[in-house]
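Hi all, a correction to my earlier message: I attached the wrong file for ABC transport system ATP-binding protein. Here's the right sequence:
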Amino acid sequence: MTGSNAQAVLRLEGVGRVHGRGAAEVHALHPIDLEVRAGEFLAVMGPSGSGKSTLLALAGGLDRPSSGRVLVEGAPLEGLSRAKLADVRRRSVGYVFQSYNLIPSLTAAENIALPRELEGVSARTARAEAREVLAELGIGELADRFPEDMSGGQQQRVAIGRALSGDRRLVLADEPTGALDSATGDAVLEVLRARCDAGAAVMMVTHDATHAAWADRVVFLRDGRITEEAVRR
Ligand SMILES: Nc1ncnc2c1ncn2[C@@H]1O[C@H](COP(=O)(O)OP(=O)(O)OP(=O)(O)O)[C@@H](O)[C@H]1O
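and the right structure:
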């Protein structure tokens, strides 16, 4: 591992996760060290059950490790109160999940603006940002549409827009292109790539090697361990 702590947007030090106890113990993730730096796009690949979602949840402070510690922008998450942790998650981390989790009663632009407004950004600024990110994702015309009037792929792009609005230094994406056709998937990857080039750190789980090809580095997980690492750029 190279580079200084200051450049690491995400740093995992001996981070492991065990579920259950005794005979029922499952090592979802054996202790690993991993760093994702500003401007770096990391892809995580591996078979089902290898620990990819566990890794993402730990990195974003959605789950707490059984061992080791997670640092986001140099700050260890372990000592933070629930409120502080929620604050870091809201301000610094953008998540794209397999499910879209859009609020049905809000339009696309309002769904994207809401977390920003919760951060204290004015409604006017938040809505303007939302329109900008929708345009970046090629769905500017959907700004005033409600989720039920959108296709699955369109909803997924709105969810991605929500994860990218504001200045999120760390973007965590679990199969973000899963529901998308290949041209739309490529458009999303282009946006993630552009975010990296603008200084964000992106960690993306994918099953698709052509999508992993957009990354600077690929780590392969198997049975909760990093078995291989490939540097592409
Ligand atoms: N809450 C839990 N309790 C018990 N075992 C769990 C729990 N969460 C995950 N596991 C186990 O930990 C291992 C890693 O799971 P994880 O969901 O991280 O894998 P994954 O690589 O993301 O899989 P997939 O590609 O199918 O989403 C699996 O064996 C899983 O069954």
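Sorry for the mix-up. Residues 1-6 have pLDDT under 50 and may be disordered.
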